[in-house]
Amino acid sequence: MKQSEKLDIILRYLYERRNDRREFSIAEILKESNVTADEAEIGRLANQLRTDKLIELNVLSQKLKKAKITSKGVTYCEEDSHAKKGESIVNHYHIVNSPQSNIVVQSSQVTTKKLMPTYGSTLILHKKVLKT
Questions:
Q1: CA-to-CA distance for 89 and 82, rounded, in angstroms?
Q2: Is 33 part of any domain?
Q3: Which terminus of the chain is more exposed, N or C, with fewer CB under 10 A?
Q4: Do 95 and 129 belong together in one domain?
């Protein structure tokens, strides 16, 4: 697995738990995600994310590095990715309550566009198909 993919896995994990107000072990994040990494690689991954100011890193020992996502990290996850530049790390889900709307159950990229003023707002959702 590429380093960029591992960085995205760490960020996605932290993003999904951004409101937990606690730190998470980088080694445990990777282990839980079934990703193997030795101590040196974990250190490189953690340091890169800290240098980029995407995480706050708490180095408790050589083996134990805990992190939580920063505001800049949240914005990065919503707009970009290490592995796929220009694509967000996280999926976007939108629920629209309007009889004229298409409902998207799952999509990795969704944009919204206001068509015309009516009673309430009418939103049409466009799904961008991404090749994986």
A1: 8
A2: yes
A3: C
A4: yes
The chain-wide mean pLDDT, for the chain, equals 76
Residue 128 lies in a domain: yes
Across the chain, which has 132 residues, the per-10-residue mean pLDDT values are 91 93 94 93 95 94 91 86 67 50 50 46 45 44
**How many angstroms separate the Cα of 9 from the Cα of each of 63, 77, 82, 115?**
19, 10, 10, 36
Tokens read off for 89: 């790390």
What CA–CA distance (Å, rounded) separates 108 from 120?
26
Q: How many domains is the chain partitioned into structurally?
A: 2
Task: Based on the fold, state whether residues 72 and 128 are members of the same structural domain.
Answer: no
This prediction has a pTM of 0.64
Exposed/middle/buried for residue 55 (C-beta within 10 Å: 0-12, 13-18, 19+): buried
pLDDT attached to residue 76: 87
Judged on CB neighbours under 10 Å (0-12, 13-18, 19+), 101 is: middle
